[in-house]
Amino acid sequence: MTATRLAKGGYIDRDQLLNFTWDGRTLHGHAGDSLASALLASNQQVLGRSFKYHRPRGLMSAGVEESGALVTIGRGDHRDANVRATTQELYAGLVAQGQNAWPSVRFDAGSISNLFGRFLAAGFYYKTFMGLPPFEWGSGTGMWMRYEKIIRKAAGMGEASRSPDPDHYEHAHGYCDVLVVGSGPAGRGAALTAAKAGVDVILVEQEAILGGDTLAQPQAADNLADQIKALKGAGVRIMARTTAFGLYDGGVAGLLERVTDHLAEPPMWMPRQRCWTLRARYTVLATGALERHVAFGNNDRPGIMTANAARVYLNRFAVRAGENIVIATNNDSAYAGAAELAQAGASIQILDARKSIPDAIRAQAADAHAALRTGAAPLMAHGAKGITALDIAGQHAANWREAGKTDCDLLLVSGGWSPVVNLLSHRGVKPVWDADLACFVPGQTNEPLSMAGSAAGIWNDNACLLSGQAAAERAVAHLGGAQGSSAAPAPGGWQGAITPLYEVKVPGRQLKSFVDPQHDVTTEDIRLAHREGYVSVEHLKRYTTLGMATDQGKMGNIIGLALMAEALGKEIPQVGTTTFRPPYTPVSLGALKGRNVGNHFRALRRTPLHEWNLEHGGTMTMAGLWHRPWYFARSGETIGDAYVREAQTVRRTVGLCDVTSLGKIAIQGPDSTELLNRIYSNPFAKLPIGKARYGIMLRDDGFVMDDGTTWHLRESEYFMTTTTAHAGKVMAFLEELLQTRWTDLRVHVTSVSEQWAGVAVAGPKSRQVLESCVENPAAVSDANLPFMGVLETTLKGKVPCRIARISFSGERAFEVYLPSDFCPDIMDALWESARSMNGCLYGLEALGALRIEKGHVTGAELDGRVTIEDAGLGRMASDKKPYIGSALRKRPDMARDNRPRLVGIFPRDRREIFNAGSLLCAPDHIEGYGEGWITAVTHSPALGHWIGLGFISGGHSQWHDKTVVCADPIRKGNTAVEIVSPHMFDPDGERMYG
Amino acid sequence: MLRIPCPFCGTRDHSEFSYGGDASVEYPALEAPAEAWLEAVFQRDNIDGVQLETWQHLHGCRMWIVVERDTRSHEIHSVRPAHEGLASALAQSADPVNES
Ligand SMILES: [Zn+2]
User: Fold this and answer.
1) pLDDT for the residue A155
2) ipTM confidence score
């Protein structure tokens, strides 16, 4: 193949010379080139090596369907594998590398596997490497284990970088009235018509420049620049370098905008790609059609491409792809290019599989001075790294026979056209086989969506324009505008009918004919699959891997279907079609994740004391989305030292802890008491004003949902606290009840979690700390604020606050809530006072130690599978009133004696340690799920050894005098433990009430 | 992605909403027997067609709404506030936000 850059024409800028590197060698192209056109103009023929057989591959197309020229772009961390050279814009300094070859695609040591091709036929991996466990475990599967590394090295595509992606990406959102996909004649017609009717239009084009198929035609034929100017003038929003990769419910399209992939030095502030969620009220798909190949011997050789590809290279990129050209076709479409290539200096032979062709088409062949053979087709290509000659087949009755040989350096194939129905298929609309046009055309849909142009099987440019205009009129009418009058043109439009041609073969000749070149699936693979009993297309695809490569069957699916139909003795529509799924072309994972990476992966919630906690030596940890203080280590302390000291200090003097992350809900209105009495399992009807109560909520199904304290502030106002983990869930549930079930209750619920900051003041000296910080110390006296008392008062500096004497630690303790903005200042005052009493700041770890000692439950225990009895709180539940969950908590299984119940756990040898997450087992039966599990452990400063909380079947009474094994097989091993009451410290609560 | 026309806010992406459940369920009185609650909490039809479901506009107005959705096509036929008082108030209002 001798390609030549023409002196004029094309959409390239000859004044801008761009150097780039291909497999280590410096080549050059021009601005406006694709990597493919620049490589072609530089006469680079072998651009890739095939997946299984390492066969040399060159350009097969000029677009997104490319299956030969898959290359790796970029260096180091920026390396991007399996890029189609046909869709990569050239820029100065671009570095491209061949892949799946060593040392290079031109000389590939791995190509020897071509000789063992018969070992790699359809199902090779399944047959050779799959054992059926347990019977064949070690035979097939074992072989796979042994050979996997070698095979993975030999069979494959480009290699991804193993470092984090250094580029950044964005998500964007958009809206429009009409989305037009594709900027060929139909898309431009649709966009202009709709915009002129006054609706908001977005036109997306996957290429860098607008034009679609018009770019494949000689420039004089169409005044493209004026048309684009008219589109902009009419207000069409144009998005080039943007692929509509998926269509979803509600008129939503996924768009991938390639922002900097064409830039030599992308500015840091620009994302590499942008993933758009676009909501359109109407969608026009003018996505075009893709030209098909034909299966014949060595049809994958470099120098064999689609007829239209050569036309694109000629007219768009000013590269004549060969000198001595054979065009093999079965339809009219290849003839226009023949004359253009001849005019550019090539000699042309045409093989037309059809017996008879129209006179006007014959005249086009004559214009090209082409030798025309009808009833002829390509049989087998010669030449190792590029086509040098072609064996020709001639039609004889219904069969092909060998009919001579001709030299050539370029073979152009047109096996017909397949409308790009992919996006419509994403909407669940099956395409319909049109036997006259030998292609699938779009099926009917009720959605606000139209197909236009060659995507609807319309082959003639002018008819494409009309169909685009008609689609736009339908869109405008749907949006409430004027009714249009244009009728969409019928599919078709060639002068002579197409003669379906999928494979050329002659009896007695072994040919290597590729159906899906990207996965090296041959015609023989398909027939082998049929002989082995495969009749369903979906099974065939998976067995042979046909259509499962990065092009998702754009090249080979129809040929595969046709061969399967032939083998089954059926017609193509009876065999079926395949369902296309998003994305239409590959989308990088980076674009899908956008900026949601690293610390931005999920929202971060900070309390108003965040900076204060950090300044005072806090180490933070995640609690859901919240950052909470974990422990406050003093110099030289480990986390273990710190939390033990903190917990001890709370029990000896006093400690302060940021508890802002607890959920807080204002419950207001005359029926507030009634609401609380219905949602809590324990009584709330008679809670006096100025008192708080611990409450447990169940779900409808009777399991525990959440717990917390609710404070009665005024006649019709309560302040509810929830756990940190379930704050959102409880709020949504209250809203559901009030809006859907109990719509007669006059209650407002408002989340005030952000508005009120919270500090726990816990320990024997907690009252003294509070006294020093409130304006009226008498207000917090034992008489005025007894256990479970609630007070609204002011802190020094006239800061309003709410205080309740409640305890999670088991000590005399208070929870103080105040407006968030005042919290750091008040914390300074509390801390100054606490420090003077040898108090401490404590974090989640000490909080955990204190509550485990007391057997208080948290989210670790209330995991959604626990009944109120399981949690040891059954006596709290009321028998005198109905409440949410009261009916279903009495189900027989939930009353079973041997349900797992909350227990405390001590190591038998008090010096031992054990882990949360371990299973609790009977000593003679350490297997399966065991008898229970451990939810939390801590070193107990009060008891002087490790303790835990957990659940075990039957609870404390069943196991208190028996040895239990704490099984932790992959961490610590087995530990003998004792089951004790969960109330491991101060069971009577003397410290708390006193 | 579904696009749900919130009666209060207009059409929004379904990612702003959270799914509730079967809106045709009539929850029994709290004192009703366990059988009635079993029916309401666990028994669900698996509808091939149009069904009523509750959604909450969680990241919007936080209102609970009843959506009439076709499970085959995801087409949404109607949307109304779950609270019947609000629904009738909205129906009487001259200028509902509901988009076509
Ligand atoms: Zn809303």
Assistant:
1) 59
2) 0.95
